Amino acid sequence: VAGITITVIDGNEEADLIYHGNRMAVNMTNDISLIMDIGGGSTEFILANHDTVFWKQSYLLGAARLLEKFNLSDSITNQETVLFNSYLKQELDSLFKAVELHQPIELIGSSGAFDSVVDIIAGKFDTPEINDIQTEYHINLNQYDQISDMIKKSTLKERYHINGLIDMRVDMIVISFLLIDFILNELKLKQMRVSTFSLKEGVISTKLGLTLS
Q1: Model pTM?
Q2: Do 91 and 61 form a contact (C-beta atoms < 8 A)?
Q3: Beta strands in 60-150 (DSSP E)
Q4: What is the per-residue pLDDT for 97?
């Protein structure tokens, strides 16, 4: 017996911890950001600035769950993209209302698939890849659009040879890019940053009492 106690948290608490992790990594200001964390089973959205969470919600729209639901072609078709976006528009109605109220200026991508965004851009454009020193990365959206188009046109076999894409994300990276594309386009966000910190760093910061009141 290892003597380990497991605590199950709900989506709201998970979103809080993701916020605290991201705030440790990126320079947040008085302006409101939309934080997005793509998990396997759920995706969390948080509208917040450097000291306040204005709104948060966890949706059952994780990459693994969506991959199972849509069973996309290899490579994805235009019709599948339209159906996928239509489903997201229906499921994320409460997010649209919150964004209309709080008017975020940017998207902050929280680790995970967003780390792959940084590394794929680095592989194609010779920009800095994820490293142990830097925790915040500004994304050039023109470069992002190019790698997104490349990923969505790729087959599974081709993705194993894309610089910066690790094997564990090859299956679900198309879903992740579809999610990110949808948020950027539907919400008309013109800036994106990536935080290399997320849930686990948020847990550490709260346990150590590093979060602000």
Answers
A1: 0.91
A2: yes
A3: 106-110, 136-139
A4: 98
